[in-house]
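User: Second chain of the day. Same drill as before.
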Amino acid sequence: MKPTLSSTGLAKICLPPRYILDEGVARIDSAGLHYRDLNQILKTLRESQIKRIELYNVHGQRYIGTSLRGDVEMIINGTPGNDLGAFMDGPRIHLYGNAQDGCGNTMNSGEIVVHGSAGDIPGYAMRGGRLFIKGDVGYRAGIHMKEYGDQVPTMVIGGTAGDFLAEYLAGGIIVLLGLHLKEDRMHKASHVGTGMHGGKIYVHGRIAGLGKETVVEKLTSQDLLILNQLIRDYSRYFGYDPKEISSRKFYKVVSSSERPYGRLYVY
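Assistant: Same format as last time:
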């Protein structure tokens, strides 16, 4: 049964007892709930001005938080399916579990904090907002990220990444902390920054395969301000010591050209 709104505009959820509204907080047991029904509930709750939504027993439901707008906090317990927070514009999501593919797909603004690892293409075409991932990510993280107006999309990865990290990166910031890498180990990513023509990547740890469109530079004082703030935020979310992380050696990967493929496609 779909949720409805009362005449006063407050949420009136016509659902079994496992869906609870209590002092402006909605708590939903998602076990066995089809993703379309779950997302309809989330949309209705948002329209009724609920400020905090807690989801429990999430098992693979896709598109959670897709196109969700406004000032709302969502707590997710479990493992959502693909495209968590896709096209999201404003909300804050804390996921206590792992994210699947496409987390933060084309996100416009807001924040997703993953207290685990993420699959392939997290941050795909992000144009704003922030994505914090405690552990590792899969392939093509940050592909096609771009800045839009004064929005600077940001992704912080605590562990390592798969191949083609920051492929075709056009703008924004990616931080690869490599927290669990030993001194003699490399990130497993190759072809990092392939086709990159904007943005920047801050990296701790060695990368074997940088794209030919990239160059490595030392951090400027402005880079250090940006990086240290992101490290403080990451540490606050996941319980790390920011001073210990900031004491590690970082370098910056940027594009060697704003038009790396210009001569291939124009005369």
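Residues 1-17 have pLDDT under 50 and may be disordered.

User: Great, on to the next one.
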